[in-house]
Amino acid sequence: MKLSIIIPAYNEEQLIRLCLDSIYESLSRCHELACSWEIIVVDNNSTDRTGLLAREAGAHVVFEPINQIGRARNTGATRAKGEWLLFLDADSLLSPELLADILTTIRQGHCVGIGSTLVMRDLPWWAEGLALVWKLTSISCRWAAGALFACRRDAFFQVGGFPEEFYALEEVELSKRLKRWGRERNLDFVILTAHPLETSSRKIALYSKAEIAKQIFYLCCLPYRTLKDKRLLSVWYDGRR
Known about the structure:
The chain has helices at about 15-30, 50-55, 70-80, 95-110, 125-140, 155-160, 170-185, 200-205, 210-220, 225, 235; strands spanning about 1-10, 35-45, 60-65, 85-90, 90-95, 110-120, 150, 190-200.
């Protein structure tokens, strides 16, 4: 089995090396479980040294000129050679324990896709509440967070990959499609909980409570219009780093 690890990255020079280092460390400590692997960083039209730093770290770098995370993930998938695709956000750290859980679940052969719960450090109380709501929703609905999303390559392409009509939460739609694909073949979609993925809380630090509340309001009251218009998704697309 070959695993393709795909990292979409837009202006991530501050964090891309930390992300890649965590992957290399995890792969080295899971060598008994891992077969072959590749790491693909999709430079999503960065204006900083993201691509250069990724190449220096040994990743295969491809370029996607249109700034859209779902499109960047799909571009990486088209270049991947693995039977399983593991999408990881550039502001996340992959632990050996979580990678071991993923590889063990894959080897058991009963699932089409895998997600993970998340942990973010130093959150204010209100953000902890939002994170808890997402955690419970993710587990109960079996929707993977975009920060970590793994699935079979054949299923990914048969359901059309990440839907590019959405500029955010495209991982939820893909989770639904893969669950339907899996049900027809007696395969599960699994959310791992034992070792949550550590991901950045920078959005909470970079945006005010009012800005985040406004973003949530748009998503709740005008979900489809908002998800299809990046101008209404400033928390994802205004480039703040």
